[in-house]
Give the backbone structure.
Amino acid sequence: MHQFSVDDVEIHPSAMLVVRGGEYVELTSIEFTLLAELTQVAGRVADRETLSRNVLGRKYLVSDRSLDNHVSHICRKLGPAADGRRRIVSVRGKGYIYRCFQPVKMAQTGQTAATAKLTVAVDNATEKAARPVRTAGQMSR
């Protein structure tokens, strides 16, 4: 897999390296794999079943909050997008969307990736369905 970028985040799969705004972002191997999966389909919903299978190597269980925790850690480490909003939002009952504002660029060719020809900033209809991932501590509030 070749290096690619989504907005100000560069993904280097062969080195398992993430750079945001020129700064190295330290991620665990699971966080890196999850971020790579989400950015591959940036602007579209990545369903929990597929993410659980591809990232965690197991069947998705509704009671399993592992993905939520990993997404929360990624969001904290990457910080907000340029507009101040979360980069990754949860779509209730479906999965997650990595919000992007510019087409995904492949480093080798500089061309827009086929999976991200459509630049999507989560529109108002999706924004209503998309909610920020909440950690266990936030849910009691």
Q: What stands out?
A: Residues 99 and 122 are 6 Å apart (CA to CA). The chain has one domain: 4-133. The mean pLDDT is 79. DSSP finds five helices and nine strands in the chain.
